[in-house]
Amino acid sequence: PVKVDLQKLSDIELVELQTHPNDWYVRHARRILMERGEISVTALDKLIEILQESDKPEHQLRAMWALHVTGNFDALRFSNAIAKEDEYVRAWAIQLGLADPELGLEHYNATLVAMAKKDPSQVVRLYLASAANRLPLDDRWELLEGLLSHSEDAQDHNLPLVYWYAVEPLVE
Hints:
Elements: H1 11-16, H2 23-36, H3 41-53, H4 57-69, H5 75-81, H6 87-99, H7 109-118, H8 122-132, H9 137-148, H10 159-167
Helix pairs in contact: 2-4, 3-4, 4-6, 5-6, 6-8, 7-9, 8-9, 8-10
């Protein structure tokens, strides 16, 4: 058996494991980075590079998740991630961006509304609808109007119900 002790690796080595083909290394390296808390500047720069420059969505997601667990997924990285081509990267950017109230992403309501109106992905719209519950009630109307403008979502198994859960507090 191979003895693996990822705890001995430096921050940059753990970050480089975010592109490893074996997901066990990826997840454990990310966990160790989270446990360490603050990471080195070079490791942070490498994570940002992976997120911005990798052409593989799985690497972008891993970098984004590592940035999130180390407290480095900020408004700038959110803005970059929601512009990515891959629908899952955009969806996870919404999830992570609105999960951290300190990011102040409620100020990005106009961006979220534009995505609700124009994003072709049902996955992204599902994440937007789910995120709507984290927004103040007054900020939900325009977002939900954009989401509900997609008639193709009516036949989806999940979207109408998630839309309802976002709208229901506004019914009164």
